[in-house]
Structure of Cryptochrome/photolyase family protein:
Amino acid sequence: MASLILVLGDQLTDNLPAIANATKTQDTILMAEVREEATYVKHHKKKIAFLFSAMRHFAQELKDNNYNVDYVTYTDERNKGSLLAQVEAALSAGDFDQVVVTSPGEHRLLSSIQQWENTLKTPVKISEDNRFLATPQEFSDWAEGKKQLRMEFFYREMRRKHNVLMEGKDPVGGKWNYDAQNRESMPDDHKVPKHSTFEVDDITQEVIELVESEFADHFGDLDNFFFAVTRKDALKVLNTFIEERLPNFGQYQDAMVEGKPWMYHSHIGFYLNCGMLTPKEAISAAEQAYHSGQVPLNSAEGFIRQILGWREYIRGFYWHFMPQLKTDNYFNNDRNVPEFFWDAQTNMNCMRQCIKETKQNAYAHHIQRLMVIGNFSLLTELSPEQVQAWYLAVYADAYEWVELPNVAGMILYSDGGNLASKPYVASGSYINKMSNYCKNCGYQVSKKTGPKACPFNYLYWHFIDKNKKKLSNNHRMAMILKTYGRMKEDNINAMKEDAAKFLTKITKNEEV
Ligand code: FAD
Ligand code: DLZ
Ligand code: SF4
């Protein structure tokens, strides 16, 4: 029985059952660069260049391993523009008994593929994606009947189940979580080791030229492309991280420094999410580094928690709450994303730096995404739909299954608290504590009101004031509401006035 095996751009893993079970002499692997996937949001140019180059390199490796591969490039005259049309064309051109596709990472695509059998009049087998450590069903079983879902408890289950950093039934070191040691800011003169970079080869160069001509109107810079595009190089990124950065990962995980976009983070999200690396190998590498005395426990545990905890939790959460999660809007926010999200033209230095780096690198680290851009998005009441589309487009590691819960659940609280135990909002003092952005800002972080006051300060209290009713049944907001209750009415009114002026400027796309 001959199968046409469709491999998507984020399925570049050779031991996926759909690939590993292929009969090399009779099956064909189909991969295609299609307009529909590249433009349903206008992905960052670097993201498209990265993914197309990684896809081309992966296809070449499969060919070198004697698989039949039908690779349709973006400008191939056979290109039909969508995955379905491409599969249809391949079925007409060949003699296949069935289509096999690994379950995709997005609800949109899964719903579509579930209909393909009717359209194609050929059996379509949706094969399991075995790259995660928990299945969506496992998450739903765990969530069943729980009043509150909290990542920390799911993470402990995963630690036990996969026997990661465990001593019998207990966590290594006696504690599950070492976050209390992970909140340091970085001294200005601290030297961070240089991140891994790779030369552009002929395949990547060709793809860069393609993106320059075909996606000229997309956001983002293409120059200075240095991502890994092969598994071999992605493994180098992981290994270099473990050796050079993981020892300080925990300590500086939340720190932000102007001009240092990469910090002590691993930068493996790009590779994990398209399948060039597996979560299991990243977790094992960190665990081994701890056991061999190379890294302290707070760093190893902190990093493992991101992958075994957050990444798995987020994925389970996505499938559990879709499609509702995409349209939830707890605070009924609907302001348009301002222009400066695309060109970084703002006097708010923290926003300028984070958006500028996003434009340059298709990357910003977690706290930049969460506590600067995310915090701003919630405080200025931006439309969840538009913020989701922005985050999905601009980061090279963004796929809806991981982007959406982070945006809807973590930063915007648009799901009403299923993911986050309270809205992640903060005034300027948090950003000032964790970064050096405020030193070079047109606003003054110490000022609460007036034209020079840091907008995060009055926007924060405006948010609390406006949503106090909705927040009052959340015990984690009790302290803040108490502080708010003690504030003088004059001060609250002055902040509300400044917030209203600022929000009008955002609505009118005026300079802020
Ligand atoms: P590191 O800081 O080195 O962390 C290691 C790994 O842990 C990451 O590569 C990632 O796989 C995992 N991880 C850490 N935090 C999370 C999290 N909250 N959710 C899921 N995995 C996590 N991550 C994405 O992979 N794709 C996205 O589209 C994405 N969008 C985000 C949007 C917002 C608003 C926020 C707040 C976070 C988002 N994240 C996303 C999570 C996190 O910011 C990125 O995974 C991380 O910045 C990637 O950089 P890194 O590989 O250097 O990660
Ligand atoms: C993100 C992306 C892009 C930009 N382009 C393609 C493509 O041309 N062909 C393809 O197969 N996949 C692409 N992808 C990844 C898909 O969008 C991804 O598989 C789905 O969003 C499911 O996660
Ligand atoms: Fe950002 Fe406010 Fe600091 Fe400026 S003063 S960098 S706006 S937190």
User: Anything to note?
Assistant: The chain has three domains: 3-127, 137-317, 340-507. The two ends are 63 Å apart (CA to CA). The chain is about 50% helix and 5% strand. Residues 348-350, 428, 431-432, 437-438, 441, 443, 445, 454-456 surround iron/sulfur cluster (ligand 3) (CB under 6 Å).
